[in-house]
Recover the amino acids of this structure.
């Protein structure tokens, strides 16, 4: 006899930025009690007052009941946790959560990145800091504002425990939000982290007006880099062909709604990366992931020339013209990935 599917009555969402707020709305629409944790008291008060999150989701009304809190312990008591702060903050948040989270709580990683200081994937950070959690990740082509507005969206929810992935997908599904369950957690994480790096490259090509042919070539050869990196980590090739791989790559490399693509456009138009970062531009996870992905690729002897040049551009040691020249003058080779 099959065990009954787990039900999650309360969902704790850690991180009250654009994506955390959108996912809190999804949870509420799915009939769950959504508890949104944020460190910014003003945002929390605004959500509780029914005026939404004007800082991160301006102009979007919160019609569903979301309860917001600055008390991490309150959110940590939920049956299911979604972790939605930027990738580089995950470890610190997990350390705060460690004494508060019950053994066996499912934790869904929603950040898209690789830890810069250690080269760890988000699931590896989770295993180190919160070993009592059951790991999962949610990723795919999904802009927070689209999801918050209730536009149709499909994502992948992956966990090595297939029954858990099914239960999380079921628990978060609404008529407009369609999660597909999967078991290849590593493959899903890699696709989400590396597409941000390539979105910066694609944006730079667009910003420099190098033409649609160049943009398409960049995306296709960038996808080959993601496949090589994934193969080395024994991810399943099919994962990369799905929502969290090709799907998210296409979205992020082609839309000015993407913060990574928009960051790349500014670089292509001639802005200095240091100035962009200093002016406090919106979160561009790829700028943090590129150098660490480049370092991992070197250690693992994986050929990732586009990731290399993005890393050097964000580090300020390579100009865009020189990057293009370097990519175009590489020795000719067979096309296979
Ligand atoms: N936006 C989107 O469309 C999507 C985003 N993602 C991923 O989700 C993750 C979060 O992105 P998103 O919500 O868009 O980012 P935002 O910039 O919109 O929000 C980030 C949130 O994290 C909080 N935060 C930042 N640092 C810390 C910290 N040290 N401790 C606690 N909270 C912190 C911020 O709080 P404060 O305001 O106080 O600084 C803010 O609430 C990223 O990895 C992104 O790639 C994935 C899919 C879609
Ligand atoms: O991951 C995203 C869409 O799937 C959001 O992309 P950006 O972080 O580039 O805005």
């Amino acid at each position: 006899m099959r065990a009954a599917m787990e039900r999650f009555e309360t969902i704790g969402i850690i991180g009250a930025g654009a994506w955390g707020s959108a996912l809190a709305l999804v949870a509420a629409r799915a009939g769950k009690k959504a508890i949104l944790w944020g460190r910014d008291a003003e945002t929390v008060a605004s959500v509780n007052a029914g005026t939404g999150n004007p800082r991160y989701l301006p102009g979007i009304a919160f019609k569903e009941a979301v309860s917001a809190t600055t008390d991490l312990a309150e959110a940590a008591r939920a049956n299911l946790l979604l972790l939605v702060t930027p990738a580089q903050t995950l470890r610190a948040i997990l350390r705060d959560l460690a004494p508060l989270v019950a053994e066996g709580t499912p934790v869904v990683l929603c950040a898209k990145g690789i830890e810069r200081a250690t080269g760890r994937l988000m699931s590896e950070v989770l295993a180190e800091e919160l070993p009592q959690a059951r790991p999962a990740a949610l990723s795919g082509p999904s802009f927070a504002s689209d999801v918050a507005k209730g536009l149709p969206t499909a994502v992948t929810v992956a966990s090595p425990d297939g029954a858990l992935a099914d239960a999380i997908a079921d628990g978060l599904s609404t008529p407009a939000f369609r999660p597909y369950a999967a078991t290849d957690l590593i493959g899903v994480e890699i696709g989400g982290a590396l597409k941000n790096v390539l979105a910066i490259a694609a944006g730079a090509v667009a910003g420099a007006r190098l033409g649609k042919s160049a943009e398409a070539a960049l995306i296709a050869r960038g996808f080959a880099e993601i496949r090589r990196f994934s193969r080395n980590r024994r991810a399943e090739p099919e994962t990369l062909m799905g929502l969290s791989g090709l799907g998210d790559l296409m979205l992020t490399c082609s839309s000015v709604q993407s913060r990574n693509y928009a960051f790349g456009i500014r670089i292509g138009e001639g802005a200095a990366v240091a100035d962009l970062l200093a002016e406090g531009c919106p979160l561009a996870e790829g700028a943090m992931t590129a150098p660490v992905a480049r370092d991992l690729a070197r250690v693992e002897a994986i050929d990732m020339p586009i990731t290399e040049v993005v890393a050097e551009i964000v580090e300020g040691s390579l100009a865009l013209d020189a990057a293009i020249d370097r990519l175009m003058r590489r020795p000719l080779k067979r096309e296979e990935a």
Notes: The first helix runs from residue 18 to 29. The mean pLDDT is 96. Strands lie at 10-14, 33-37, 66-69, 80-83, 106-109, 134-139, 153-158, 177-182.
